[in-house]
Fold this protein.
Amino acid sequence: MDLYDIIFYLFALLTLVSAYFVVTNKNIVHSAFFLLFTLFGIAGLYVLLGADFLAVVQIMVYVGGILILLLFGVMITNKITNVSIKTGTIHIIPAAIVIGLFAGALASIMVKTQWQTESAKIPFTTSYALGKSLITEYVLIFEILGILLLIALIGAASIARREEKE
Amino acid sequence: MYEIINDFIQIEIVSMFISAALPLFVFILPFALFAVLAERKVSAFMQDRIGPNRVGYHGILQTVADILKLIQKEDIVAEKNDKVLFNIAPYLVFAGSFAAFAAIPFSSKYIGSHTEVGIFYIIAISSLVVAGILMGGWASNNKYSLLGAMRSAAQIISYEIPTALVVLAMIMFTGTMSLDAMSQQQTAYFWNWNILGGHETGILKIVLTPFMISGFLILFTSTLAEVNRVPFDIPEAESELVSGFHTEYTGMKFAMFFLSEYANMFAVGAIVTAVFLGGYQSPFGYIGNSIGVTWLVPIEQFFWFTAKGLFMVFVQMWLRWTLPRLRVDQLMTICWKYLIPYSFLNLIVIGIITLL
């Protein structure tokens, strides 16, 4: 086994184990901190794929943004932190059907796709090509996403600042 | 650096790891030893006191004595603390500030990792520090710690925006995210530094310089706020919150927070230096080049980089012992009403000038 393989399995293990604890943990703050390791493990996998820019974006957006805001929300809302969450199983049949469909779809994608199996040359940097395709080929999607985020921001601000009616 | 280590070890990934981890031993630990003492001496000087002068010649061994004391201290973990998170938090904070050093170019021959996403990586990885602070504050199970952690997180995520905007403008201007390449571009003389308009010439340089200087000030202010130093130290405001998120920590765990704070101080200096103050470039050209000794150049570069970085650290200490602490609302006002609009203006102007 190559050293890179070992590192890959370490990151994969980190991701999977912490993801498992995110779901099963009874304490919501602990779950949030386990999510930190999950997201970090995924960033590690991106690095191993040679996607340096994507890995940094993963850390920046998910760890630096979303996770911190999540922790913030969890901690500032008292009474959430001390409530133990129920993690029992309910609605087993619908859940099994949905998971079965989803897993089947994923598996069929994995099997059916023509993967490039030759060892691709890892580009020295991915940011140039990414930036180029974002503002040429995918510029419409990029702009629409920007507007969507702006709408979300304005919506959040207007909900937060709504005046109490007498 | 990576190439030299790789010649010895021959295993790509191990030598990458060593080269990225090396700044800890060659730089952060000696720097922290020096900076803690320097802080106390500078504060003493500013307040017309003598400062530590009992241990060693004029107190130069004071920090060593402090460390020996901290090692001996009992490691107190209170009964109601969240044991696991409480123990992980200091290391997470330190890992965040230590990982940032991997992309800092100390000289043209020594940079931890030749990653292309340098500055972006530094901004991203320092979010581990926020996670660690929140973790420590929450796990302490103490209202002052939690309040401190909350303030810290709110402050850091707010001030990340002006930082990112200024850095974005500079990425557009230099066309690279690598701090090494940014430093290389600002070559030779100080009028080529980015703060004085980089390599633009003529009228463009004169137009650009005020925007560069304001960009420099915004970047310095907001990174200073991100590392929770005075005047932005409301997360650990002694007069209100005992000492904020690390109230409950003792012994070596407290030392980890302390070490991380000093590492962060230099990281701020290093980022500002590499982006605006010419990185490792000398302001007047190199002695090594003029007398024809080429191996001297990287050493000179190391000297200039650390000199500029340490000067910025000195400025931080200077500010700490000069300015009073901001209130929370003032802090948010500065960020959202002043720094962010100005950095947007900066972004637009620098973008247009870059296109011209």
The CA atoms of residues 296 and 314 of chain B lie 27 Å apart. Chain B has a mean pLDDT of 81. Residues 12-46 of chain B form the longest helix (35 residues). Residues 22-72 of chain B form one domain.
